[in-house]
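Minutes, structural biology subgroup

Action item carried over from last meeting: produce the structure token record for TonB family protein (Tenacibaculum jejuense). EB confirmed the sequence was re-checked against the source entry. Recorded below for completeness.
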Amino acid sequence: MNKKLRFSTLLLLFYIANVSPQSSQTCSNSVDDPVLDLNSITKCSIDRKSDDNKVQKVTVQVTSRRRRVVRKRNKATGLSSANNYSHKLASIKKKVNIVNSLVDIKKDEVPDVLPYDYVDQIPLFKSCESAPIYEQDRCFKVKLRSHIKKNLKYPVSAYDRGIQGRVYAHFSIGKDGVIKDLKIVSPYKGDLLGKEAKRIIKKLPKFKPGEHNGNAVAVKYGLPITFKIPGKKPTNIRKTNKIKSKETIHSFSSLDQIPQFDSCKKTDDDSLTCFNTSLIQHIQSYFAYPEEAKMKNMQGNVIVNFVINKKGNVVDITAKGPENAKILEVAAVRFIEKLPKLKAGKIEGKTVNASYSFPINFTLN
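Output recorded by EB:
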């Protein structure tokens, strides 16, 4: 009996040593397999063999509650990933450093008013204060457009007469967050549009003021507001006359007296410096970077050529800019088209046609 028991025990051990390992290499096809442990994925977890020995791929779906929570939190704060955030933040800091070096602003010499693009911290609508730093500029502009769209009322008289055009609003947001120094530049015969634009800007809420080098500063800002009647041509377009081909056109250098702005006439300053200064101020008043050009990263110098005729009107405006930058050329021509009537140039006491060229630099910070 003891011999039979001993023999059975040996037989059982032999079976365990030789048969069990082979069976452990067989992958189960049971539909009741437990969920795979991510720390113990084996070949059997990836490949299954069917009865005809063809490999069937098994898709392992990995889920993690913790990762889902992180993704939701990232979405809520606007952070797609830590690396992406760091990259954007570094880009912003680099831009700030470049701008500071360009304007050479020292910590103990902060001007009272700074351009919007130069400050460390832009002014903010209350609803934008919680936005990530790289989203604040977009938030500011979206809220500003929303305010204009919500409050704009086309002046009835201007609408009935077909008066349209673009109004340029320039203002500063003071250290107290209040709109100040509001200046409106209206289109030709578009004073009613200018008044409406002024009303809208004055209705802007109080902002969180901008900062630079840790100090609150007033921030100047400008934007165009377009008044357009769909399907109707504007009636307030200024007629532009062209110089007849036979008429002589003189350069500024050959004139006894160059054309001049009213502002220069009032101060008895007939110099070219005063002319250029007034021309620059005019362009700055109307300047607005074309949105399409921004999106396409278009930059460069546009040379504008124009003639001031014997009556002081600006005519024959042409522009030449960088290759494939027609948008910038069109914008430059529009700035010059809005020039006021000037005092005509003279030679030997007689008014003459005078040509002039001027560069307008389009640069994205």
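Discussion: Residues 82-103 form the longest helix (22 residues).
Next step: EB to file the record with the rest of the batch.
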